[in-house]
Amino acid sequence: MHSHERATSCGADTEQGTAHCNRGTAIATPISEPRYNERIRAREVRLIGPDGSQVGVRTTADALVLARELDLDLVEVAPLANPPVCRIMDYGKFRYEEAQKAKESRKKTTHVTVKEVKFRPKIGKGDFDTKVRHMRDFLEDGHKVKVTLQFRGREVAHPELGAKILDAALEQLGSLAKVETQARLEGRNMTMVLSPDKKPAKKLTEKSADDTSTPVADSAPEVEISTEDNE
User: Fold this and answer.
1) Structure confidence by residue, pLDDT tens digits, 21-78
2) Average pLDDT of the chain to the nearest whole number
3) Residue 91 near residue 77 (C-beta atoms within 8 A)
4) What is the CB neighbour count within 10 angstroms for residue 100?
5) Alpha-carbon distance 138 to 87, whole Å?
6) How does pLDDT run across 182-223, given as a tens digit for each residue?
């Protein structure tokens, strides 16, 4: 009866009617939460005891009495069954345990982002090795890496210089990285996207990374390291 009246008021095309509708929605039980105690609408339920035992079909009123005698709640766990299945339990404890499960599930979810590392065709060995270490760290953490070669002036006429740098970086990373997007020239930038070739592994020490370094051009560095997330 009350639900029908609320629905009728919501249909009224007036400011007061809308306000009444909003108030009614605010106090409604969220869809994600089960009905419990007096919010259970069915007249009869299939009852499960607090220990998991099958009590059988009972009127909702009788089931509520049993739950209150045990100082517990009556919770609808299978609303689509006929009759709905309800269980006697501590609803507060149930909600807490469900929240903890959801929290743990979120912790296990890997949030993959795209990190960007920028190179110049004329780059010294020290800067090159530092950048490759950044790339290795990102990949081992499970992130993707966008590698950007920045050309200036007439350098853009020699894309093979950038390709050489990319090949050297890939050689150092070895099996840790796989090419997701092949290198391509976009204006004055050559870009390539790498992704981890396997699940994030334990990071190697800096010494190990240095041992695998490959010499490149000995000219002075002309680039800044960018480790910002790619929007």
Assistant:
1) 433 333 444 446 889 999 999 999 999 999 999 999 999 999 999 999 999 999 999 9
2) 75
3) no
4) 10
5) 48
6) 888 888 888 889 988 765 444 444 444 444 444 444 443 444
Q: SS in 3 state form for the chain?
A: CHHHHHHHHHHCCCHHHHHHHHHHHHCCCCCCCCCEHHHCCCCEEEEECCCCCEEEEEEHHHHHHHHHHCCCEEEEEECCCCCCEEEEECHHHHHHHHHHHHHHHHHHCCCCCEEEEEECCCCCHHHHHHHHHHHHHHHHCCCEEEEEEECCHHHHHCHHHHHHHHHHHHHHHHHHEEEEEEEEEECCEEEEEEEECCCCCCCCCHHHHHHCCCCCCCCCCCCCCCCCECC
- pTM score of the predicted model: 0.41
Q: Using CA atoms, how far apart are residues 155 and 219, in angstroms rounded to an integer?
A: 15
Distance of alpha carbon 153 from alpha carbon 147, whole angstroms: 20
Q: Residue 3 contacts by C-beta under 8 Å, 6 or more apart in sequence?
A: none
Question: For residue 173, what are its two tokens?
Answer: 């990373």
Report yes or no: 123 and 221 within 8 Å, Cβ to Cβ: yes
